[in-house]
Structure prediction request, 308 residues.
Amino acid sequence: MWCKVINLILLLGVSRLSGAAIQRPDYDDTDTPEFFNPSWMASIPDARPLSEVTMPGTHNTMALYGGVYAECQTWSLASQLRAGVRFLDVRVRHVEGNLTIHHGVVYQHAHFGHVLEGVQDFLNSYPSETVLMRVKEELSDTDNIYGAVVDYIRRYARWEMLWHSRLVPTMGQARGKLIILQDFLGPDLGMRYKSMDIADDWKVPTLLHVEEKWQSVYEHLEMAPTGNKDQIFLTYSSGAGVFAVPMAVAQRVNPQLYGYLKAKSDLNQRFGIICMDFPAAPMIQTIIDFQLKAGAEKIPLIQLGLQF
Prediction:
């Protein structure tokens, strides 16, 4: 019996099974970011299209519960936004007009209204920012969440807070707005998720396949600087499988991603959205710093809200 348990732990490769939280420059599964950066977009020129902005995101943003197979983040939505995350990946289960937040079968103790309220509160406090949010149906399979999404927006947010166009906005047009990246059927609420250039090779059967995952991430990031400037690039560094839970994959991919970005730190390049599991504040800061190299005006750290 104990041999089976030990073998399972080795296969999962999860350091946190012992209960010890980890905080590294690339990976953080503690409850709170090392520091915050809530208004970094204030330094981006108004005329710059969002397709030319490099920004951090989180995969399965609200997946904070359910054990190692379900959890992809440990920071609350408010903490993620204040840390600098600007792309959210939100999965909703649709049952008779209700939209609860799920990761697979695991209920995440929230509904879509909580997410909308959290984003609106953040944008009210930091109107220089914008938030892009993928919305996708999870667990249920109705292919008919449009009406429920509209109802929740009307109940929990201001309709004028949304970006109402398929077109990629400039930074000036996007400030203070939520851009829904619509991964469901129905009339336009915002931009279409599949209009982006996306790399999401999330299947990592075992930890022996982590290098294949990293190669996919690497190749897409290498394409982004010279890719279509009118198209947003989105690269997921996250992955999972039966013998490779999200936490274990992140512990191995995040250091490679961090090293890659640090090696590019002197270059003026855009990488688009980099979407991660368990990112650390220094990793997020490294992604944000590409804006300064692209000609954004540096603003004082007090204004950035950095807290060490």
The longest helix spans residues 246-263.
